[in-house]
């Protein structure tokens, strides 16, 4: 048997290749939309991808099952649980098998046993894996059910998709599902779909895998006997779900576009064309590092640096219903497209080489940083306003008394709440998110704004510690 791990840091998402080397067959578990790495790996291992398994209708990335079915004829193995509202649509054109609790199917000499594990979502299933001649499973693919040190959140349908009342119902379902999980043998390995950084839970560990026994002993969510207390605690402290989660739920339910059928973005060669687009309301993302953007950028552009958190903030900020323009290094454009498409942003219609754009620009904007020590007297004398763009839980743990809290992902929607009667200071925990926030504010016409370097963490050290 072969088990291969694929991890996308930008999505904090794990996919798995499971292969039977005796028969040369393999399947993917929870594949992402960019299936090329899986195809290449299977070829290298001498395996043929014959199927893809989905643990649930994902909310945080576009699943690659239909892509594999279209390109390779791979069978989609998907849930038939959760009722009619959670049925996969438009899959009759692809080879597929609907799965219910207790079902089993074989891939070569490997057996997959289906376990319905609702809680994160109603249709959620897990896959227990048995090797040939083994009478007990060796591991379980849990999707967003059980993570390392955490479990899937039950509130996404309510917070992201507006389905009222589903959070509490999901929490009760999760308690029941965990009781089934606790009954599994301690030695079973646990292979989850996400790691640290995912918004599908509140305290995910960074270790790739775990065991049932370890989670029963140390996972906070598996320590409850009182169902009511569990339901209450599970719903508290969950991070804000990105706006794009609602889009992903719909896309993965009805089916995404096939990547090969998407048009390639058109190249812009003149700054005049780009500036005319901005004047007509186009959304333009500059993907350079924030330090470069701060020194010099084109008016009206957003800065989302192409790094580990790029897809998360693109999902919060980009309007899916409008064409997107991208400023990027030419050699990074393909990877940027893959990242955007991984969360369903398919309307990247134009791009311009960012170096060409900056060289052509005669009029540019900039913004300045300010340290907490420099900012403190201005805050104390009320010469400036302060906007805190951290998550709600971070704000609740401590904040600058006079600050206005507007979480970064909601900043564009709440732009009218930003105080503009004084110069503006923006901070997060370290200065990374606030740099994005400054770019959004400037693009929307709020020009007298500075980024607090080091953020609240440095503020605590340089300012608060000096007043104790």
From TrEMBL:
Keywords: Hydrolase, Metal-binding. Residues 278-308, 380-468 form the Rhodanese domain. Signal peptide: none annotated. It comes from Pontibacillus yanchengensis. PROSITE patterns: RHODANESE_3. GO terms for molecular function: hydrolase activity; metal ion binding; sulfur dioxygenase activity. GO terms for biological process: glutathione metabolic process; hydrogen sulfide metabolic process. It comes from the Bacteria. InterPro entries: Metallo-B-lactamas (IPR001279), Mito_Persulfide_Diox (IPR051682), POD-like_MBL-fold (IPR044528), Rhodanese-like_dom (IPR001763), Rhodanese-like_dom_sf (IPR036873), RibonucZ/Hydroxyglut_hydro (IPR036866). This is MBL fold metallo-hydrolase. Pfam families: Lactamase_B, Rhodanese.
């Amino acid at each position: 048997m072969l088990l291969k791990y694929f991890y996308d840091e930008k999505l904090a998402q794990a996919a798995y290749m499971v292969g039977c080397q005796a028969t040369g067959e393999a399947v993917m578990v929870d594949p992402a939309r960019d299936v090329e790495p899986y195809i290449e790996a299977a070829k290298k291992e001498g395996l043929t991808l014959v199927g893809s398994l989905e643990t649930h209708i994902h909310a945080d990335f576009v699943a690659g099952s239909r892509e594999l079915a279209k390109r390779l004829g791979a069978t989609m193995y998907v849930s038939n649980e959760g009722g009619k509202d959670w049925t996969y649509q438009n899959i009759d054109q692809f080879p597929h098998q609907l799965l219910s609790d207790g079902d089993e199917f074989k891939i070569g000499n490997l057996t997959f046993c289906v376990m319905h594990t609702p809680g994160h979502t109603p249709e959620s299933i897990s896959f227990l894996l048995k090797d040939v001649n083994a009478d007990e499973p060796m591991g379980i693919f849990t999707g967003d059910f059980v993570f390392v040190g955490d479990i899937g959140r039950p509130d996404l349908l309510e917070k992201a998709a507006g389905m009222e009342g589903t959070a509490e119902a999901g929490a009760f379902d999760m308690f029941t599902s965990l009781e089934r999980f606790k009954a599994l043998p301690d030695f079973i390995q646990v292979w989850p779909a996400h790691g640290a950084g995912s918004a599908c839970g509140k305290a995910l560990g960074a270790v790739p895998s775990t065991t049932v026994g370890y989670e029963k002993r140390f996972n906070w969510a598996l320590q409850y006997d009182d169902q009511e207390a569990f339901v209450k605690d599970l719903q508290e402290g969950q991070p804000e779900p990105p706006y794009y989660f609602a889009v992903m739920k719909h896309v993965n339910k009805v089916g995404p576009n096939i990547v090969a059928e998407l048009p390639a973005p058109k190249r812009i060669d003149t700054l005049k064309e780009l500036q005319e687009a901005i004047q007509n309301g186009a959304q333009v993302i500059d993907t350079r590092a924030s330090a470069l953007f701060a020194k010099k950028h084109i008016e009206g552009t957003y800065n989302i640096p192409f790094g580990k958190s790029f897809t998360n903030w693109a999902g919060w900020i980009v309007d899916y219903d409008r064409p997107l323009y991208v400023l990027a290094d030419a050699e990074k454009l393909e990877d940027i497209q893959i990242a955007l498409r991984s969360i369903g942003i398919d309307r990247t219609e134009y791009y311009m080489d960012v170096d060409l754009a900056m060289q052509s620009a005669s009029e540019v904007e900039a913004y300045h940083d300010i340290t907490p020590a420099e900012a403190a007297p201005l805050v104390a004398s009320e010469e400036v306003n302060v906007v805190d763009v951290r998550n709600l839980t971070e704000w609740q743990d401590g904040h600058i008394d006079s600050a206005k809290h507007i979480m970064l992902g909601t900043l564009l929607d709440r732009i009218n709440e930003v105080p503009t009667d004084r110069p503006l200071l923006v901070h997060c925990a370290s200065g990374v998110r606030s740099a994005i926030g400054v770019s959004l504010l400037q693009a929307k016409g709020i020009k007298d704004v500075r980024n607090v370097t080091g953020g609240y963490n440095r503020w605590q050290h340089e300012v608060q510690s000096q007043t104790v």
